[in-house]
Design goal:
By secondary structure, the protein is α+β, with helices and mostly antiparallel strands. The protein has 3 domains: about 170 residues, no CATH class; about 180 residues, Cytidine Deaminase, domain 2 (3-Layer(aba) Sandwich), CATH 3.40.140; about 210 residues, Rossmann fold. The strands form 9 sheets. It has a 16-stranded mixed beta sheet that branches. Strands 1, 2, 3, 4, 5, 6, 7 and 8 form an 8-stranded antiparallel beta sheet that branches. Strands 10-11-22-17-19 form a 5-stranded antiparallel beta sheet. A hairpin with a 2-residue loop joins strand 32 and strand 33. The longest helix is centred in the last third of the chain and has 17 residues. The radius of gyration is 31 Å and the shape is elongated. The N and C termini lie far apart (about 60 Å). The mean pLDDT is about 90.
C-alpha cells in the first residue's frame, strides 16, 4: 500500500569534528551530529524501531530512511549524508541526534568546511531533513494514472520504468558561482544560513549552457523540470551512470514543486576517473503520495479542467492563500497602523514558521522615514532578533496562513510576505527582494503617517510605477486593498495593472483593445448610450475578437463612464487608466477588471499605456484633454510605437457650428502638416507622413465607426495599402510592441505573415 513518507523539519548541525580528506572523492570532510529538536513521541518511536530493525537485519540505516539536505547548501557543493553509528534518541529531552558526514565537493570553496565549523560553534546551522518511506513508491501504472488525471506533469523527454522509476535528462543549463563574490567575507555565511534565497546574487545560469561532459572529481549544478500535484518526489542518489551521484538536496515537495517551465536545480558530482557525457545522464526519481494536508491543498487548487494549466505555470500565491478574499487579506493587517501616532506596528514580514514584526521608528516623538527604511532592511536581513516570533510565539490567527505559504509553486520565491499600510520607497522594495521577500501587501500607495484620518491613495508616480512593473517582471508580486463606495476588494498587480481576481484570469486572453477618449461631461451620456450598446453588441459577437476583446478608458465620468457601463453589460473586459481626478473634483471609477491610476504629473505615462496597449482609438466629443490625447496618439503611430490602424473620430451631434464635425478642422490641420508647401519661394517638404492622416476617420455615428473597424479586421493588409502605408512599417511597429510585451492580435500576425515570408 502506498503511504505518504514521514518527513521531518530541518535538523541542525550542532557538532563538527576536525576536518579529514576523503581520498575517493578528493574532497575534505567533517563528521558531525545533526539534532532534531522538539521531536514528537511518534517520530522518536519510529526512528528507534527502524534503528533496531536495521541492527537486527545487519543492514545500514540508510536502507530504511534517508537524509535530504538543504537546496542552497547542495547548490554550492556542500553534501551531507548519514554516517555510520546509531542515532541517539532522548525521550526526556525530546530530541534525536544522527551522526552525519559533511563533504565539500566544490573545489572553489576550499575553506568552506572550516567556515561551516566556525558557524556551528556560534549557533546551530540548519542542515537537513529525515525522509522515512512508509511504503513503496508509485508503480508505473500509478504514475501513468497520475499523468492522465492531471496530477503530474513531466518534461517531453522522460521514461517511466517497469517499477515506476522515472528517468529525466538534465536540462541544457549549468549554474555558475561568482568566485569573486563568494570570496568576500560573510558571503559564505549568507549562503549557508539563508540557503537558496541567499544565492540569487552569487549564482546564475552560465551563457554556455550544459557542458559536453562532467570531468572526474567535478561538481556541476544543472537542472530538471517536473511539476507535482498531490505527490512528493525523491531523487535517487545515483544517476543513470553509477559514477555520478546527486548531492543531498533530493526531496521535491508536492504542490510546491509546480511549474513545468521552472528549473529545479540538480547538483551532481562525478566520483569516477573518467569524464561522463552530460547529455547521456538521467536523473532517477521515485514518486510517493503526499501527506494529507498537501493532498487536501492539491484537491482545492488543482481544479478539473484547469489542473494541467496550473501545473504548467505553477500554483499561485493567491490560489494557496485566498488573497483575493478581502476578509482574509484584511486579517493580515491586524495591529498594523497607518501612522505612528495610532500605535501598533509599521509592518511585518510573514514566512513559513516565522513572523518579523517591524515597529514604527521614532526619535524624540517624531517619525523619521530614513530610520524606518533602515529598520525594514535590518529586519528583512534577520538582524533584529527581538522582532522575530516563532513556534508558540506566533498568534494562532496567523498559523494556517504561514503553513500555506510553504506550498506556493513556480520559483518558490513567494513564501515571504511584506505587509504594511503603504508602499515603501523603491529602494526599500529592492532590499526586500534581495532578502527573499516575494510578495508585498498594502492598502495605499502613499504613506499616511502624520495625517490622521487620511484616506488611502492609489495614484502612482512614474518612477514608482516603472519600478513596480520591473520588480513584477522579476517575479515579485504586489497586492492592494481598494476601498470604494460599494465596499472594498483586493487587486493584484499584473502586466502593468491592478487586476481583480476575474481580471487576472481573463487578462492573458486579451489581444485587441479599443481605447476610448472623450469629455467628462455627463450630459453626453444620453446621446452616446444607444449607439454604444449596438456598437458593443456587434464587437462582442465578432468571432475574430471573442474573449480577446477589451476596452480602455481614462477611469473618469462622462464619456468614459458611458463606455465602461456599456462594455460591462456586454461582458467585455475593461481597463481603466486614469489620473488623480479627485483633485479636480472627479470621482475615479474603480470598477473595471484592470485599473492603474497616476498622479497628475505622470500624464504622459498614462497616455503611453493607453496608446501602446490599444489597436483601435475612438475619439468622442471632448475638450482640452481629448485634444492632447489625439496629438499623442498620432505621434505614437507615426514613430512606430502603435500599430497603424483606424483612429475613429465620432461626433453624432455636429458640435462644430451648423452641424459640422467637431474634429474636422483638427484633421485638416494634420493634412496641412503632412503636405508639401512653397512659401515665399521656399520649398518646404511635408512635416509628417500623410499615411498617418489617412488612418483618421471622421464619422457621425457608431454604426459608421463599426464599418471602418470591421473593414480593417477583414483585411488589414488591404487597409494599409489603401492608406499608403508601407507594410514594412506595420511589421516594424509590430516588432516594437512585441518587444514591449504587448500581445499582437492574430489577424495582424496573419496579415504580416506573407510579407515576412517573402522577406
Amino acid at each position: 500500500m502506498n503511504q505518504a513518507p514521514f518527513v521531518t523539519g530541518d535538523g541542525q548541525l550542532v557538532e563538527a569534528s576536525v576536518i579529514h580528506f576523503n581520498q575517493e572523492l578528493s574532497a575534505p570532510q567533517l563528521f558531525g551530529v545533526m539534532r532534531l529538536s522538539h521531536v514528537s513521541d511518534s517520530l522518536r518511536g519510529l526512528v528507534r524501531d527502524i534503528a533496531e530493525r536495521a541492527k537486527a537485519q545487519s543492514r545500514p540505516l540508510q536502507d530504511f530512511l534517508d537524509l535530504s539536505g538543504r537546496s542552497g547548501h547542495s547548490r554550492i557543493g556542500i553534501d551531507i549524508h548519514l554516517a555510520e553509528g546509531d542515532p541517539h534518541i532522548s525521550d526526556t529531552g525530546k530530541y534525536i541526534e544522527m551522526p552525519v558526514v559533511v563533504t565539500a565537493l566544490n573545489a572553489h570553496l576550499a575553506e568552506s568546511l572550516s567556515d561551516l565549523k566556525i558557524l556551528t560553534q556560534r549557533s546551530p546551522v540548519d542542515i537537513g531533513r529525515l525522509f522515512v518511506p512508509m511504503g513503496p513508491h508509485l508503480s508505473r501504472d500509478q504514475v501513468l494514472a497520475a499523468l492522465d488525471q492531471e496530477e503530474l506533469l513531466l518534461p517531453e523527454v522522460h521514461d517511466i520504468g517497469p517499477d515506476g522509476l522515472i528517468e529525466i535528462p538534465l536540462d541544457n543549463v549549468r549554474y555558475i558561482l561568482s568566485q569573486r563574490l563568494i570570496s568576500i567575507p560573510h558571503n559564505f555565511a549568507e549562503m549557508i544560513i539563508r540557503g537558496k534565497h541567499g544565492l540569487a546574487m552569487f549564482q546564475q545560469p552560465a551563457p554556455s549552457g550544459l557542458p559536453e561532459a562532467i570531468g572526474p572529481k567535478e561538481f556541476l549544478v544543472s537542472a530538471l523540470r517536473i511539476s507535482l500535484g498531490p505527490y512528493m518526489a525523491f531523487i535517487s542518489r545515483e544517476l543513470s551512470n553509477p559514477a555520478v551521484f546527486h548531492l543531498a538536496s533530493r526531496l521535491l515537495d508536492g504542490v510546491r514543486t509546480t511549474g513545468i517551465a521552472t528549473m529545479r536545480q540538480a547538483e551532481i558530482f562525478n566520483r569516477g576517473e573518467e569524464p561522463v557525457p552530460c547529455r547521456d545522464l538521467r536523473l532517477r526519481i521515485k514518486l510517493y503520495p503526499a501527506e494529507e494536508r498537501v493532498a487536501a491543498i492539491s484537491k482545492r487548487v488543482l481544479k478539473p479542467g484547469k489542473a494541467t494549466a496550473i501545473l504548467a505555470r505553477g500554483v499561485d500565491f493567491a490560489e494557496i492563500t485566498d488573497m483575493f478574499n478581502p476578509s482574509a487579506c484584511e486579517a493580515l493587517f491586524d495591529e498594523i497602523s497607518a501612522a505612528p501616532g495610532r500605535g501598533g506596528l509599521y509592518g511585518r514580514i510573514m514566512m513559513p514558521g516565522r513572523i518579523v514584526n517591524i515597529a514604527w521608528e521614532q526619535e524624540d516623538g517624531r517619525w523619521i522615514p530614513e530610520f524606518q527604511w533602515r529598520l525594514v532592511y535590518e529586519c528583512a536581513r534577520g538582524n533584529v532578533p527581538e522582532a522575530v516570533l516563532a513556534e508558540d510565539e506566533i498568534p494562532k490567527r496567523f498559523r494556517t496562513f504561514l503553513q500555506d505559504l510553504k506550498y506556493v509553486g513556480g520559483e518558490q520565491s513567494l513564501s515571504k510576505v511584506f505587509v504594511a499600510d503603504a508602499l515603501p520607497p523603491v529602494d526599500t522594495l529592492r532590499v526586500l527582494k534581495r532578502s527573499g521577500v516575494g510578495v508585498v501587501l498594502i492598502k495605499s500607495i502613499t504613506m499616511r503617517a502624520g495625517r490622521n484620518g487620511a484616506r488611502p491613495e492609489y495614484y502612482l508616480d512614474q518612477s514608482s510605477y516603472e519600478e513596480i512593473a520591473r520588480l513584477w517582471r522579476e517575479g515579485m508580486r504586489f497586492y492592494m486593498i481598494f476601498e470604494c463606495s460599494d465596499g472594498c476588494h483586493v487587486r493584484e498587480f499584473k502586466n502593468g495593472f491592478w487586476v481583480s481576481a476575474e481580471g487576472k484570469d481573463r487578462m492573458d486572453r486579451i489581444h485587441t483593445t479599443f481605447a476610448f477618449f472623450g469629455s467628462v461631461v455627463d450630459e453626453l451620456k444620453p446621446v452616446l448610450m444607444p449607439q454604444l450598446e449596438d456598437f458593443f453588441t456587434a464587437l462582442a459577437a465578432d468571432q475574430r475578437l471573442g474573449d480577446g476583446l477589451a476596452v480602455a478608458h481614462g477611469s473618469g465620468p462622462g464619456v468614459m463612464k458611458a463606455v465602461d457601463d456599456a462594455a460591462a453589460r456586454h461582458g467585455i473586459y475593461r481597463i481603466g487608466v486614469g489620473i488623480d481626478g479627485e483633485r479636480i473634483g472627479q470621482e475615479t471609477n474603480f470598477s473595471p477588471e484592470a485599473v492603474v491610476q497616476f498622479v497628475n504629473i505622470a500624464l504622459n505615462t498614462r497616455q503611453d499605456i493607453l496608446d501602446r496597449r490599444s489597436i483601435f482609438k475612438v475619439f468622442n466629443i471632448g475638450g482640452y484633454g481629448t485634444c492632447y490625447e489625439i496629438n499623442m496618439a498620432l505621434t505614437f503611430m507615426k514613430i512606430g510605437h502603435c500599430l497603424p490602424a483606424p483612429y475613429v473620430f465620432v461626433d453624432p451631434i455636429g458640435l462644430d457650428g451648423q452641424g459640422g464635425h467637431l474634429w474636422q478642422r483638427a484633421i485638416e490641420q494634420f493634412q496641412v502638416l503632412s503636405s508639401a508647401h512653397t512659401v515665399g519661394g521656399l520649398d518646404i517638404p511635408p512635416l509628417g507622413p500623410m499615411w498617418v492622416v489617412n488612418c483618421c476617420h471622421l464619422v457621425r455615428s457608431y454604426p459608421e465607426a463599426l464599418q471602418v473597424i470591421t473593414g480593417f479586421l477583414d483585411d488589414p493588409a488591404a487597409y494599409w495599402r489603401k492608406a499608403g502605408i508601407d507594410i514594412a512599417k506595420a511589421a516594424a511597429a509590430r516588432d516594437n510592441l512585441a518587444r514591449a510585451g504587448v500581445v499582437i492580435p492574430p489577424y495582424i500576425e496573419g496579415a504580416l505573415s506573407d510579407y515576412l515570408m517573402q522577406k
